[in-house]
Design goal:
The chain has helices spanning about 25-45, 60-75, 85-95, 95-110, 125-135, 140-145, 165-175, 190-205, 210-240, 265-270, 275-285, 295-305; strands spanning about 20, 45-55, 80-85, 115-120, 150, 155, 240, 245, 250, 260-265, 325, 330-335, 340-345. By secondary structure, the protein is α/β, with parallel strands linked by helices. The strands form 3 sheets. It has a 6-stranded mixed β-sheet with strand order 3-2-1-4-6-5, sandwiched between helices. Strands 7-10-13-12-11 form a 5-stranded antiparallel β-sheet. The protein has a two-stranded antiparallel sheet with strand order 8-9. Strand 2, helix 2 and strand 3 form a beta-alpha-beta unit. The longest helix is centred in the middle third of the chain and has 30 residues, at about 210-240. The protein is elongated and about 75 Å long.
């Protein structure tokens, strides 16, 4: 075999970037570090590494840190090792171990002295994330799953989203490079592991190419979201009215203390597509700091008499003037003769 390489998306990196690679010691991150080390001169980047010890696995975690230190020493790559306390955060915030570990890891990344932090998410990670989002009933922004870039300082880049886990391991074996296996990756108590070890193998029986297929779904969903973000920026200012109408014309921004209110004229929503109506209602609610579910969005459309053919009538929802709904997050909806009014305490 010729010199082993990985199909990295190097367009995410800029000449002169100081790039810190998040290295756990697992196959994916070790492969990313090696691949970027091979090409750092060609790409014109400075390279360093950051390892986060989560405080979950005791001696096994310490051994991972030692492995990464040895690897970075051999490659002459500066390494930062940070230790965080995931169990303490789980207890304090009542989060899952996965959520707490991710939050603390990205807090460490935010403190790194670099222009970009490169993480080793693969095509398999992308496919698994799409499935997990789909199972939770995500909208298309959720189906976009793992974004190639997260803006910030430093920005987060994922150059390996087109690389499969099988390609990663083949690359490392060709290089004679070992890696660390995280024992928690085998625990079926974690949702991602059940998707990885149980659901994905089952789906491959129906479509051997399900991993790239799901990755393509993420690409399509992100493009859809980019389009709708631009559309909402264009449409919302002309459709969302501040405050409430007052006698004699005009609108008042005066509401009950601590309450914010907006409204949308129903006749201006009527000629729009169902997709646009849904987006506009969700965008309006987001402006009040609320995130609408699919069912809540459908109820608001039903209040406007614009639910669409798929709506199953709900006796708790009325399109008559004076009808009201109380939704999650303190959001309240009220139907008038002309408007749908939304307010939040």
């Amino acid at each position: 075999m010729a010199e082993a390489s990985l199909n990295l998306n190097v367009s995410l990196l800029r000449v002169g970037d100081r790039v810190a690679v998040g290295v756990s010691g697992g196959a994916d991150s070790v492969a990313l570090l090696l691949a970027l080390a091979d090409r750092r001169a060609e790409l014109g980047i400075g390279l360093s590494a950051v390892h986060v010890e989560h405080g979950i696995r005791g001696p096994e975690g310490d051994a991972d840190a030692a492995f990464v230190q040895q690897l970075c020493g051999r490659l002459d790559i500066p390494l930062t090792v940070e230790r965080v306390d995931v169990p303490a955060r789980v207890e304090r915030e009542k989060e899952s171990v996965e959520e707490a570990a991710r939050t603390l890891r990205y807090q460490v990344f935010a403190r790194v002295d670099a222009d970009a932090v490169a993480t080793a998410h693969t095509q398999d990670d992308q496919a698994e994330t799409v499935l997990m989002k789909l199972l939770r009933g995500a909208w298309t922004e959720g189906l976009g799953a793992i974004s190639p870039v997260l803006a910030g300082r430093p920005r987060i880049v994922r150059p390996m989203l087109a690389v499969s886990r099988a390609e990663v391991e083949a690359f490392l074996r060709t290089r004679g490079q070992d890696w660390r296996d995280d024992s928690t990756n085998r625990s079926l108590d974690l949702t991602r592991n059940r998707v990885r070890h149980e659901l994905m193998p089952l789906l491959r029986q129906f479509n051997p190419q399900v991993t790239p297929a799901l990755s393509q779904v993420a690409d399509l969903a992100r493009a859809e979201e980019e389009f709708w973000a631009a559309e909402l920026a264009r449409l919302l200012p002309g459709l969302v009215l501040p405050g409430t109408p007052v006698r004699g014309g005009g609108r008042s921004s005066e509401t009950a203390p601590g309450t914010r209110a907006i409204a949308m004229e129903i006749e201006r929503l009527r000629p729009l597509s169902l997709a646009a109506r849904r987006r506009l209602l969700r965008g309006a609610a987001a402006g009040l700091g609320c995130r609408l579910s699919f069912t809540e969005t459908a109820k608001l459309l039903a209040m406007c008499g614009l639910a669409g053919e798929g709506w199953t009538p709900d006796p708790t929802v009325s399109a008559k003037p004076g009808a009201q709904l109380h939704l999650q997050g303190g959001l309240r909806a009220r139907r008038t003769a002309r408007e749908l009014q939304l307010s939040r305490i």
